[in-house]
Structures are given as structure tokens and as C-alpha cells.
GNAT family N-acetyltransferase (Clostridium paridis), 180 residues
Amino acid sequence: MNYELKELNENNLETERLYLFPLQAKYLELAIKDYKRMQLDLGLNIARQELIKILKYAMEIRLKRILEDPKNYLWLTCWAIIHKEDNKIIGFVIVKGVPNEIGEVIIGYGIDEEEYRRNKYATEAVNGLVNWMFENPKVNAVIADTDKGNIASHRVLRNLGAFIFKEDDELIWWRIEKLK
């Protein structure tokens, strides 16, 4: 199947099997209201009819942040993980803010579609976005937190060279450092 994304621009990233598409405010808003319509408007095949509750909430927060700081939307948005061959969204990487004073950026990620899990798509997507982030001289490290029991996410982060730098009863915080 040919890639049909209608909004190709210089901000999209490409990996071997995926496109990473940063959702602008208009697409976040549309996804929150009508996820199916957002996918159709982007020229994608429908992955699912509605967003899962936690992702909808994350997008509401991202939309609010982007409306407050539109020039930094790439650092405040959800990046759709689009499977090239199937032309559909299979998950998201969420960037939670601009680099802080010591050059850290926090992300979250997930592959929503069950049939795409355990195929290294999360590793490929996160690696693609981390590489893009490390091109920015203000970024020194990428941080991700995971539930202690989320072994699949632990594997993704280990594969990317992340190390544990903090944990509590529920969460583990991982750090990927920029190579100097």
C-alpha cells in the first residue's frame, strides 16, 4: 500500500518501517473529538474508531500546552507512529516538554495496536525520535518512566542504551544520554 499521508512536511521523521508525524493542534483537537475523522483527514487507514481513555487525556494535555506555546509544538505534542506498509497509526510517542535547564526531555510511548506489539516498532519509533532530539544542541538526555511491571517497555529502553537512574514503588525512570 502506498503512503498517503496528506500532511507531509519537514517535521515528519522516517525510519525503516515507520513515519513519525507530529500532531499539530488542529489534529490533536480533531483526534480528541473524532479520532476516526482525524485519521481519514490525514489520508490514513483506520486503526481504531476511538482513542483509549488515557491517550485521549494525554492529547488534551498536549493540546493545552501547544495552544500556550505554539512555536514549540514539536516538543509538546504526540507524534503518531505510522506503519508505512499498512498506512495506519499503530501508536504514539509523546514529548512532554522543551529541554529543561540541564538538557533533559521527557517522553512516553506506546504501541496501541496489539498485532504490532513485539515487533520492535516501539524501539524503532523511540530511536528515530531520540536521534532527532539529539540533533538539537540543547538536548543532552531523554528520560522515560515505566511501570515496574512493564517488561516490554524495559526491553525497549535497554535496547536503546537507556539505564535506570531512579525508581520508587511503582515506577522506574530511564535515561538515554547523548553521546559526546
Summary: The first strand starts at residue 13 and ends at 14. The chain has one domain: 13-177.
